[in-house]
Design brief:
The structure holds two protein chains of two kinds.
Chain A: E1 4-7, E2 10-14, E3 19-25, E4 32-38, E5 45-51, E6 56-59, E7 62-67, E8 72-77, E9 86-93, E10 99-101, E11 105-110
Chain B: E1 4-7, E2 10-13, E3 19-25, E4 31-37, E5 43-51, E6 54-57, E7 64-66, E8 76-78, E9 87-94, E10 103-104, E11 108-112
Parallel strand pairs in B: 2-11
Antiparallel strand pairs in B: 1-3, 3-8, 4-5, 4-9, 5-6, 7-8, 9-10, 9-11
The chains are: A mainly beta, B mainly beta.
């Protein structure tokens, strides 16, 4: 079945630096790739998503890139701030009813 | 807008007990789902529903039961709780089935002793 691998599991950056989280997926039929941010004690919240007909998408300090040939996609956060500290999940959907999530990356932004 | 509401927020059970985790959404979403979150394993799909009266199994359905009698509600039942079911449970919904963003509740933290 579909598998999504995410790394690193933990990432620590200095405030103002960039952070990059990478994911790979196994099912070439995957066509929708959302990213979620989870703060302590809360449920995951969608921050950005990309569909397979697009190579890159940007929303202010957040961008996602997709390489369909290599079956990997990445989240880029620029000018990180302490409030970016959270757990980030990537996910993949093949167009069916099931979304498969990565194991998560805990991001620490040091002030 | 309340979004997705889960109750209770915390629960402690003894092995063998049964209970129902409640989930309600007020967005008229067709698709609802239940996930469990365990350290280092991300979110794993337990059951999902594509509309009232229609449910199906996800990746880890054993030991859980669901029903969907209304669009708004999607309860998750633990039939006979086991320590392996200690986890944080999240309910989510989206406007339609398929590749759509999901809206998550804030979770139920469940401990089985």
């Amino acid at each position: 079945g579909e598998n999504v691998e995410q790394h690193p599991s933990t990432l620590s950056v200095q405030e103002g630096d960039s952070a990059v989280i990478k994911c790979t997926y196994s099912d070439s039929a995957s066509n929708y790739f959302p990213w979620y941010k989870q703060e302590l004690g809360k449920g995951p919240q969608l921050i950005i998503d990309i569909r397979s007909n697009v190579g890159e998408k940007k929303d202010q300090r957040i961008a996602v890139t997709l390489n369909k040939t290599a079956k990997h996609f990445s989240l880029h956060i620029t000018e990180t701030q302490p409030e970016d500290s959270a757990v980030y999940f990537c996910a993949a959907n093949t167009g069916g009813f099931k979304t498969i999530f990565g194991a998560g990356t805990r991001l620490f932004v040091k002030a | 807008n309340a979004g997705v509401t889960q109750t209770p927020k915390f629960q402690v059970l003894k092995t063998g007990q049964s209970m129902t985790l409640q989930c309600a959404q007020d967005m008229n979403h067709e698709y609802m789902s239940w996930y469990r979150q365990d350290p280092g394993m991300g979110l794993r799909l337990i059951h999902y529903s594509v509309g009232a009266g229609i449910t199906d199994q996800g990746e880890v359905p054993n030991g859980y039961n669901v029903s969907r009698s209304t669009t708004e509600d999607f309860p998750l039942r633990l039939l006979s709780a086991a320590p392996s079911q200690t986890s944080v449970y999240f309910c989510a919904s989206s406007y339609s089935p398929g590749p759509q963003p999901q809206h998550f509740g804030d979770g139920t933290r469940l401990s089985i002793l």
